[in-house]
Amino acid sequence: MKRLILFINSLEQREKIVLIGGIYLSIIILGIFILGSYNYERIKTLEKKISLETEKYVELQKLIAEYKNLKPQSNFETLSLSKVEDFASDTGIKNNIVSLKPYQHENNSIEVSFEKISGDQLVTFLKKIKNEGYFVNSININDPKGNGKLNVRIVIGDKT
Known about the structure:
CATH architecture of the largest domain: 2-Layer Sandwich
Helix content: 55-70%
Number of domains: 2
CATH topology of the largest domain: Alpha-Beta Plaits
CATH superfamily of the largest domain: Ribosomal protein S6/Translation elongation factor EF1B
Low-confidence stretches: none
Strand order of the largest sheet: 1-2-4-3
Number of helices: 4
Radius of gyration: 39 Å
């Protein structure tokens, strides 16, 4: 250690600056090398993970395609205004339809409103909907005069 101090003291000012600069530069280069090798290993690990996940994704896509091929093709018609009107006509309450329109809050749903229909007519209509494979999202039934003539609002959904 004493020899090192003697050696440094024997150097001129310019040589000391060059020596200290060289030491700092060596430390910086060594630090960059160590950090670079650490990051290089992390990058390699991440690339392996990405390739593994990509392989899993490709396998999943193959399974999805195979499932779609094996899945029985459904041959149902989508719900339409004319289909709901036909249901009402079949059950004898077409003349009681007040409004018939697509339902704004759900895709492929239809809102239909009836006035002055009996409970039996309503049950027949709902059974027709069920038998055709559609479902009722919501129903609102009112009997404003208390005479058994119902005002009904139904939201019918497509079969999925």
